[in-house]
Amino acid sequence: xxxxxxxxxxxxxxxxxxxxxxxxxxxxxxxxxxxxxxxxxxxxxxxxxxxxxxxxxxxxxxxxxxxxxxxxxxxxxxxxxxxxxxxxxxxxxxxxxxxxxxxxxxxxxxxxxxxxxxxxxxxxxxxxxxxxxxxxxxxxxxxxxxxxxxxxxxxxxxxxxxxxxxxxxxxxxxxxxxxxxxxxxxxxxxxxxxxxxxxxxxxxxxxxxxxxxxxxxxxxxxxxxxxxxxxxxxxxxxxxxxxxxxxxxxxxxxxxxxxxxxxxxxxxxxxxxxxxxxxxxxxxxxxxxxxxxxxxxxxxxxxxxxxxxxxxxxxxxxxxxxxxxxxxxxxxxxxxxxxxxxxxxxxxxxxxxxxxxxxxxxxxxxxxxxxxxxxxxxxxxxxxxxxxxxxxxxxxxxxxxxxxxxxxxxxxxxxxxxxxxxxxxxxxxxxxxxxxxxxxxxxxxxxxxxxxxxxxxxxxxxxxxxxxxxxxxxxxxxxxxxxxxxxxxxxxxxxxxxxxxxxxxxxxxxxxxxxxxxxxxxxxxxxxxxxxxxxxxxxxxxxxxxxxxxxxxxxxxxxxxxxxxxxxxxxxxxxxxxxxxxxxxxxxxxxxxxxxxxxxxxxxxxxxxxxxxxxxxxxxxxxxxxxxxxxxxxxxxxxxxxxxxxxxxxxxxxxxxxxxxxxxxxxxxxxxxxxxxxxxxxxxxxxxxxxxxxxxxxxxx
Length: 701
What we know:
CATH class of the domain at 1-36 and 199-350: Mainly Alpha
Oligomer: single chain
Helix content: 55-70%
C-alpha cells in the first residue's frame, strides 16, 4: 500500500502539491470562523440529576441564574443608609437599561434580602440577568461590558463585577491572548531547533509546513463540530500544541528518512518510495495509536473533555495526512535541493555509529543497573503523587490581579454564602408531602457548609428549595457537602442541583467513565503495536513503561501546582491545593499517546534492523542510533511548543504546558533512551515472540 502511494505521490507530485495548498487555504479561511463559535463551559454532565434540575428551573420554571454578580461596596457607610439605598437603586436602574440585560435584582430592590448583604453590612449584591443563556458569546460579551464599565469606582461606590459572564469572558480573552503569545514564541523557536537538527534551511521549513497545515485543517473540522455540538475554547490550545508538535514530529521522521535514502545514493523517486514504505508506515501506525488514545476523551460525558477528543483526533488525522499526502510530493519536487541552505554540515550526514549507538551498547552491557537507576529516578518524580487532589477550574485559575478573580475572592470573603451559586433542590410532585418536605428542609439546614435555606416554594405540583453554601462550589469540600445532602432521607422525586451538585456530578461522571477509557486505550494500543511489531511482549512493555512515565509526570505536576514549587520557572499562579480534574485527564491521555508515538518511532527502526538479519543487540544499537536523534529532536520540539503554554496566565493551560513538556522529555530520555534498550537486552530474542496462531495478524512488509 505504502509503496503504491510512493509511486503515486511522485508521478502526480505537481497536482498533489496544488491540492494540498488549496486545501490549506480553504481550511484556514473557513476554520478561522471557529474562534467566535467556542464557549468556556462544557463542565456539566448531561446525564446527571443536576442537569435535570438546571433544565427544569430554566426551561419549565423560566428562572434564570444571574449572569453577572456585582458587589457594591459602600465604603464606611451601612448599605441600609437611605442615601446609600437611593444611590444603589439608581445604579441598579442604570444597569437594567444596558443592552442585553433582561432584569436585575439587588439587596435594595429585593427589600433587604439578607443573603444579598455582606457580613459587615457595608456591601450588597446587584444580580444582573442576561437575555442570553450562560456560557454563550452574548452573555460573555455582556460580561466584558460590565467588567469594563461597572468595575472599580462608579457613582460613589467601589464595584466588583463577577459571575459566569465576567469570568467566562475573562478566561476566553486571556486564553486567546496567551495562545497568540505561545505561537509567537513556539514557531520561531521550533524553526531554529529544526535548523539545528537538519542543518539546512529548506529541510527545516518542511515540518513547519505540515504542522501549520494540521492546525488550519483542525480549525476547519472544529468549525464543523460547532455546527451541531458545543466545543470548548480550551480545545484551541490542544489543536495548536498537538498540530504543531505532531506535524513536526511526523515530518521530521519523513524528511530524515528521505535525506538518508538520498545520501545512500538512491534517486528521488526511489527515495520517496522507500520513505513511504518505512517512515510512512511508521507515521501511519503512530498516528493511529495517538488517534485511538485521544478518541477515549469522547467517552467522557463532559462536553469539555469531548471537545478535546474532537480536537485531538482531528489534528492527529490531519498531521498524518499532511505527512503522507502533502509532504512526499513536496519532497519529490524539491529532490536533492532539500539540503540547500546548509548551516551545520555535521547534521547533513550524521554518523552511522555515533553517540546513540555507543549509549545503547553501554546500556546493554549493564541492563539491570540501568533499569534500577531509571526506576529510582522515575520513582523520585512520582513520589509527590500521594498528595494529589482534584477540583474544577474556576476564577482562581485567572491571574490574581484579574478583576474577575478579585471579584470572586471578594464575594467569598465578605459574604456568608454563595448567593450567585446556590444549591437548587427540586421535589417533583412534592405539594402533597408537606411534613416530609418540612423535615427534609430542617435536616438540610444542619448539613456542614449550608448557611441558609429558603422556605419551600410551590410551582404547580412541584416544590423548590434553595440552599446557600459557605464554600466555593467547585471544590472537594463542596463535593463532600453534596454527597451528604444526597444521603439525607428525602421525599420521593427529590433532585439536587446547582453549581456544587453540577461539579459533583461531573467528577462522578469522570470517575465512572475512567475505567472504560483506560481499558480502551490499553487494549487498542496493545493490538496496534502487536500488529506493527508481531510481538506480544513489546506492547505489554510499552504500556507498562508509559504508566511509569505518566506517574512521574503526575507526581511532578502535584509538586509544582499543588505544593507550589518552581513558580520562578512556570510563572506565578493562585495556589488552590488541587489540580483541575479535566486537565489531568487530558494531560494523561495526551502524554500516553505521545509516548506511544515515540515508542513506535524507535521500535520501527529496531524491527527493520532485526528483520534484516541483525542480532538483538546490534538491532537495538543501530535502531537507537538511527531513530534516537529524531526522537530526541521531536520531543524537544514538542516540549518547546507546549512549554510556550507556561507563559499563559490561566493556571490550567500553564499546567498542561508544564505537564506535557516534562513528560515528553522524560519519555525521550530516561524511558526510550535508557529503559527500552536495557529491557530489550534483558528480554533478548523473546522480545519478538508471539504465539504462531497470532502471527498471521501482523504486518510483514
